[in-house]
Amino acid sequence: MTRFPAVEAFRGGDGLIRVVGHRGARGILPENTLIGFEFAMSTGAHLLEFDVVMTADVVPVITHNHRLHAPTFRDDSGNFLTDEPKVSDVTWEQLQSFDVGRVDVSSAYGRRFPDQARLDGLRVPRLVELLERVKQPRFDAANLMLEIKSDPDFAHDQAYRKTLVSRVVAEIRAAGMQERTLLHSFDWNLLAECQDQAPDFPTSFLTQLPDNDDEVGEDSSKSISPDFSGREHQIPSLVAEAGGSLWCPYVNDVTAETVADAHNLGLVVAVWTVNEPEDIDRMIDFNVDAIVSDYPGRVQGRLEARGYSWT
Ligand code: MG
User: Fold this and answer.
1) Could you tell me the distance, in angstroms and rounded to a whole number, from the CA of residue 23 to the centre of ligand 1?
2) How far is the CA of 64 from the centre of ligand 1 (A)?
């Protein structure tokens, strides 16, 4: 198996479990914003997870949903949106008129993040802005888990999917960040496209079994994931057969046995999204490689208390 530097950055070891800032540090600062990413990296959570979608003018931008997410997008009057245009229907310039510095705490989504800072004037970043930020020497230890969001509306549009991958890969290469980036997705066919176009990049395979509930108030992965019916216990082998370097299961799907299976196959296991202390402790007990969390500091606290380091 090829040893990719970015994969080794996510691999744990004896007394070592990595911490991955989910959308930066969503529990503390607005998600998928430069200030959130910089905060996470500054606290020693050098590994960042974030989500990439493409605008109408083919600009890769960092946002989670395929539509402008009403609970996190405000218009130029400061009001949270009441409708949700698609990101793929607005230009980069149009996207810049929206403020993503706060979460609407009256929404079901916002109630999940009552402690998130209330900021003004934050814009959806382009992928290239984050890449430039991470290239600064003070963030030399940073590595990126770049999730390419797969839009069900374009599931059969091969030209669109090829363009999405090629634009993302071209921007990473232009920034010289190809040795510090994982291509990560729930859409395994899109990951195959990544492997075709960019075999020098490692791929990271997300999974979520259908029997667990979706996280409240955000796009579901279920319609674009493979069907694992009857094969739930074989997922690590399926990831390895598909050429994956990482397996990224949902926190409630993983067991000590499946983590051990993945390790026997040489895979790195990074579990999402792990926010509750009892879940963090369980993942430590399972010997995962990396913990993806909205609260990277909380994970560091549990690791420290149990004698683990994260670098
Ligand atoms: Mg993501």
Assistant:
1) 7
2) 7
